[in-house]
Amino acid sequence: MSQADAALSFLSSCHADLTRLRRHLHAHPELGFEEHRTAELVAQQLHAVGADEVHRGIGGTGVVAVIRGRRSAPAALPAGAEPGPQAVALRADMDALPMHEELEAPWRSTRSGVMHACGHDGHTAMLLGAARYLAATRDFHGRVHCIFQPAEEGLGGARAMLDAGLFERFPSDWVFGMHNWPQLPAGRIGLAPGVMMAAADRITIEITGTGGHGAHPHLAVDPVLVAGHVITAVQSLVAREINPQQQAVLSLCAMQAGDLGAMSVIPRRVSLVGTARSFRADVQQRLEERLAPLVQSVALAFGAHAELRYERVYPATVNTPAVAFHAAEVATELVGDAAVVRDLPPSMGAEDFAFMLQAVPGAYLRLGTGSEGGAQLHTTRFDFNDAVLPLGAALYARLAERALSQPAAAML
Ligand SMILES: [Zn+2]
Ligand SMILES: [Zn+2]
Fold first, then answer.
1. Mean of all residue pLDDT scores within the chain
2. Lower CB density within 10 Å: C or N end of the chain?
3. How many angstroms is it from 93 CA to the middle of ligand 1?
4. Which of 26-40, 65-79, 237-251, 350-364 has the lowest mean pLDDT?
5. What is the mean pLDDT of residues 27-50?
6. What fold characterizes domain 199-314?
7. Residue 261: which pLDDT band, with cuts at 50, 70 and 90?
8. pTM of the predicted protein model
9. How many Å lie between the centroid of ligand 1 and the Cα of residue 191?
10. Closest ligand to 149 CA?
C-alpha cells in the first residue's frame, strides 16, 4: 500500500470521530479573535493525539502544535543540491461569521447571529485529523507545525500570528493552507502555480458640497450629482488605464447621502465605500496612485471637495511554483491525475493566508466539496460536506509527510 493510501485508510477509519468533531465545532461557532472555546478544544485534541508541544495565545486565540518525525534527516546530498525542507507548517482557520443560520440539522449553530458559513469548522477538524495521523505514524524527518489561526474573515488573524512571531518561534521552510470549495465537485483538488486570489483593498470616499434646497440647486453645490460622476469616472481606471491582459476590479458597493424622507433637501455630504481587487503589485499600485487625483478632480470640476482613503487590507495570495508543484503531486497521489486541476483560474476573492505566503514559500489549495443541492460559502444554509473530511485530513498530512520524506533535489 502506498503511503498516500495508508494515510487515507488511517483517516477513513477516523471518519466518524472527525464528523462528530466537525459538527460540534459547527454547533459552537465563535467570531474572529473570540475563538476561546474552539482554541481550548483544539488544544485538548492536540494533547490527546500526542502532539509534542502545544502553544496557545499566539496572535490572540491562535494555537500551534509541533509534531516531530521519527525518521533521521536524509543522507548527504550530491554537491550543489539544495537540502529539502526540515519543517513544514500546515494552517487551518477557526473563525465563524456574523450571520443568522437557517440550517435545519441537529448540529446547527447554538449561538444566535454566529455561524460557520465558510467551513472553517471543517478546516479545523481536518487539520486535527492530520495531526492525529502524523503523531501516530511519525514517518518523516524534521517537524510539522500545525497552525490553527483565528480571525480569517476580514480581521487578518494570519497577520496577528505573524506579528506575534509565528515563524520566528516555529521556523518553517514551507507553509500550506487550503479552503473547501463547493464550486469544485467533492473529491477534486485545485490549485495554481502562481496567483490564487486577489489583493483586497478598501476605498472610502467623502464628497462635500454645500447642501441646499432641491428647488434652488443654483444656490447649492450638490454632492449627490458629484457622486454620480465619481462612480462613473472611477470605472475608467480599469477600462482605460489598466492593461486589458491584467485583471482588476473596482466596485463601489455602499453609498450614503441625504434622508429618504427629505425629497427637497440637497445634502451636504456623500460617503462611498468600495473595494479594489488586483493580482499584480504594479496594478494595485496604479489603482492606488490614480484613484485619489481622479476623484478629487471630478469633485473640483463641480465645485465640491472630495477626500479618498485607500487601505490595503489583504495582499494577493500567490503560490510558490515549486511548492505548488509538490502540492499537485501530493494531490495526484490521493485522488488521481484526472481529479487534480493544476491551473485553477485565480479568484477575485481574497484570503489572509496571503500574509503567510509573503513570509514563507508555500501553496494554497482548494479542496472540492461540491455536492448535489449543497449551499455556497457565506450563505445561511451552508454546511461543510463531511464526506471529504478524511481526504482533506490526508491531504494536509501528506503535504507535510511527503515533503519531509525525501530530499528536495529528488523531489522537484
Ligand atoms: Zn469566508
Ligand atoms: Zn473561509
1. 95
2. N
3. 10
4. 65-79
5. 98
6. Alpha-Beta Plaits (3.30.70)
7. very high
8. 0.91
9. 18
10. 2
- Percentage of residues in the chain having pLDDT higher than 70: 98
Q: Which residue, 223, 201, 215, 177, is CA-closest to 366? A: 177
Residue 7 has pLDDT above 70, yes or no: yes
Q: Where are the domains of the chain?
A: 3-198+316-411, 199-314
Residue 14 Cα to ligand 2 midpoint, Å, equals 24
Q: How many A from CA of 69 to the centre of ligand 1?
A: 33
The CATH architecture one would assign to domain 3-198+316-411 is 3-Layer(aba) Sandwich (3.40)
Choose the catalytic residue: 35, 93, 101, 152: 152
Q: Ligand nearest 154 Cα, by number?
A: 1
Q: What digits encode the pLDDT tens for the residues 62-113?
A: 999 999 999 887 766 677 777 789 999 999 999 999 999 999 999 999 999 9
The predicted pLDDT at position 73 comes to 75
Distance 157 CA to ligand 2 centre (A): 12
What pLDDT is recorded for position 409? Answer: 47
Residue 285: CB atoms within 10 Å: 11
Which entry of 30, 95, 333, 352 is annotated as an active-site residue?
A: 95
Tell me the three cell numbers of residue 60. 490572540
- pLDDT of the residue at 407: 59
Ligand nearest, relative to CA of residue 181: 2
How remote is the CA of residue 94 from the centroid of ligand 1, in Å? 11
Ligand nearest to the CA of 121: 2
Distance from C-alpha of 221 to C-alpha of 234, rounded to nearest angstrom: 21
- Please give the distance, rounded to the nearest whole angstrom, from the Cα atom of residue 120 to the centre of ligand 1: 8
One-letter amino acid of 88: V
Length of the chain: 412
Whether 95 is catalytic is yes
Q: Is 311 a catalytic residue?
A: no
Q: How far is the CA of 236 from the centre of ligand 2 (A)?
A: 32
